[in-house]
Amino acid sequence: MATSSINSKYKMLSGYEIPTLGFGVYQTSANVAEDVVLHAFKTGYRHVRSSILFAVPELPLTKFGPCAEAIKKSGIPRSEIFLTSKVPPRSMGYEQAKSSINSSFSQTGLDYIDLYLIHAPYGGKEARLGAWRALVEAQQAGQIRSIGVSNYGVHHLDELESYIRQLETEHGEGKGGEISVGQWELHPWLARPDIVEWCQKRGVVAEAYCPIVRNQRAEEPVLQPLVNKYGKTPSQILLRWSLQKGFVPLPKSVTPSRIEENAQLYDFQLMDDEMKSLETGEYAPCAWDPTTSND
User: The whole model's pTM is what?
Assistant: First the structure.
């Protein structure tokens, strides 16, 4: 029997903790985002991958933003909720990233954000390193608790690691920041063993977006014996796989029943041979794949 729960957490290199199951609201319409997040909180989620900095044209952002407004209305202490936001590709570079970070606070009214990531390694080396420096400064100022990256390939990670060492040489130990979290599309058809190994060697937490492959693989033959054995949906099998790989899956849904279903993962555990059966060896993204960028 699985011993973890929706309340389980990992400790990050920053010293803070991150809940091992997240809830994604990226590209969720602003007119439903608040209600969706409130239902996720009611279900037991405490980790939200926020859409604060992603443009949602349907409605203007409120003072607190849809996710921040849900936090405010939930009645749950802010300290119990883990909120993530990102520097979007259009804001790469030091000054642009600083402006983007500051904007997130003016939009939401929050005192701090738990995790801030660089969304993608676009814009060139100077822009990537400048955006990282802006994150480090915001972290040192207490605005952000933990920082990291998203969609970085190993070559981008190596570049950033070298830059962190450079900043520490110039400014002192700990002054370069630490990559606490990396976020990628991760599932059995895109397991990214090279990136995962890089993270594991350094204690970087790997988050998995598109963990249920946008429901495109629900009928895969490899899933059916597990679905039948455990009486679970294909999505639940994939999320359980992600948890047992040590990832932090970020399932997304606007449907209350599926929000609840995606949290019902703790009454079964895949056996070692079943985990191995899901090693497809495929490299098949269902979303974009900036990890291959060489700009």
Answer: 0.94
Q: Which residues make beta-bridge pairs with 49?
A: 24, 84
With b for 16 or more beta-carbon neighbours within 10 A and e for fewer, the 77-100 pattern comes to eeeebbbbbbbbbebbbbebbbeb
CB atoms within 10 A of CB 167: 18
Q: Give dist(CA 174, CA 155) in Å, integer.
A: 22
Q: φ, ψ for residue 114 (rounded to 5)?
A: -70, -40
Per-residue CA distances from 222 to 26, 73, 128, 136, 238 (Å) = 29, 42, 39, 43, 11
Provide the 8-state DSSP code for 187. B
For the stretch 47-63, pLDDT in tens is 998 744 444 434 344 33
Strand partners, 209: 185
Q: Which amino acid is at 70?
A: A
